[in-house]
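@channel anyone free to eyeball this complex?
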Amino acid sequence: MKKEKPAIGLDVGGTNLKCGILTPGGRLLACRKRKTEVQKGRDGVLANICSLIRETLAEKKLTLKSVAGIGLGTPGYVVEGVIHGAPNMPGWHGTPIIDIMEREFGVPFFASNDVTLAALAEYRYGQKAAVNNMVLYAIGTGIGGGLIINGSVYEGSFGMAGELGHQIVENNGRRCGCGIRGCVEAYSSTVGLIALARERLPGSSSLILQMASGDLDKVTPKIIYDAAKRGDKPALEINDIACRYLATAIGGMINILSPDLVVLGGGVMQAGEIILNKVREYLPSFALPDLLARCRLDFAKLGEDAGVVGCGAFVFEKTGKLGKRGES
Amino acid sequence: MKKEKPAIGLDVGGTNLKCGILTPGGRLLACRKRKTEVQKGRDGVLANICSLIRETLAEKKLTLKSVAGIGLGTPGYVVEGVIHGAPNMPGWHGTPIIDIMEREFGVPFFASNDVTLAALAEYRYGQKAAVNNMVLYAIGTGIGGGLIINGSVYEGSFGMAGELGHQIVENNGRRCGCGIRGCVEAYSSTVGLIALARERLPGSSSLILQMASGDLDKVTPKIIYDAAKRGDKPALEINDIACRYLATAIGGMINILSPDLVVLGGGVMQAGEIILNKVREYLPSFALPDLLARCRLDFAKLGEDAGVVGCGAFVFEKTGKLGKRGES
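replying in thread with the prediction:
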């Protein structure tokens, strides 16, 4: 039997680049990291990406001919092969990434939004259940989303679908970074949690303030959740508000898509059950019972490697090397 | 060249049954209607469906062998071949419709939610633009939805997707018929519009009240919109509120799915541009600009026949008689 070629995954972040070599079975044969160095501009970042790919191949003594292709995940969108958006990466917008990389490496090259590809990784390798439709919420500084529809990555008509952080949960609510008022991201992300703390903590005797050395600027989600787990009432209230809004957004999404599985990941979810349980408690207030009864809510399983694994998995999906999962 | 067989479409409503014979090109060769007679219970409704199908075939001198199959649209869901929900049709829930009808007619039989199939009709035959992803809002007594994803009907994992009326647009808002608080259906449907009128009209000198002979119980969306078109301020305010909430829901959906096209249909939309223009005005407050710029908002084109046409089109889709539309 011919051995299936591995794929190269390249996860682009505002701070780090990560390059992995992935088997179709989901094993990372190698994984290297380096700084993105966005301050060097587009050409500097592209040079760093190319050298990281070559170094990773060299580490495993592989040639370009021995890989199925390269998959790249990036902040922002990939619209007809061109990077769109990615505000934290100056100069990245407008990069014809697919043309450039195909010319550089001469192997099949695919690119998409980083959270969308993390969802693919969770779907293919993280979650054990065979399902058709899965939605990932990546809850970190902001809230990103990734959609798996009928067993495949869903990017929408223009590579932009899955903006799950921008569901309106409060009419005329807090202004979100995107400019819209009342997005769930404005309440339930790191930025949102810190804003909730800033509103509620001044003058209080919350453990949060003590743990932040009395300095509101030092409050983090970790501090809020450490305090909540010690029973601090203001911290528990912040969690309650953030989770109620998160459940509002998730419930509305369930009513639209009726997925089998909703997965919560990202840095904020390191707080664990305290979030998941509270979201579960509130979901019946927002999701229709028939749809909710058939939808499981769970943690993301892959952790920090989801991005790079998803980039590699995207190569397998696009080249038809992975059968459909979860079809009955 | 062999002539493609037509399909039978059977649209089940709480009041009427409608049976059509549809060509793959989207032409209705025949279309017959009769009362559903829900008061006769499940077996009575099934008997009415079967006799209507036979009468329609007879009218065109067709036999069952000469059709590609039968498609049925119903209120509620079709879950693994069994009707689920459909609260306005007592006894309909739990009917194993696919088994029953395949046994009765011996031809391929397919069933789905009525609004989902109306969306398919709009996608295949109503809208001229070739798009991949289209979302239909059917705004009538309630608000139903139908999703076309990657050129095909999307029913979710269990036949229940597309509950577009149950997006939360007002935190702790008005109680919806489904039990959830603040659904868009509670504001922007016929029921919602009438509730808005009831809240705002008592004691006012609105044209609406005059046109309803001073009787709040006689207010309809038609009266509200006739008054609005004559410049009545309370009527314009009601439209403003309903459209702002509708835009909140549509905007959130656009941020999730990023479709090419959103279509508004249903009885309330007979008011026309006054709704569409106001929704367009509010959408930038709720949808991300990159996604909104690529999404067209338009009226449904097929009118009352959308249901029965969609039922027939579903047969073609399921038997692979229709190529994918809008693929580039």
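from a first look: Chain A touches chain B through 46 residues (CB under 8 Å).
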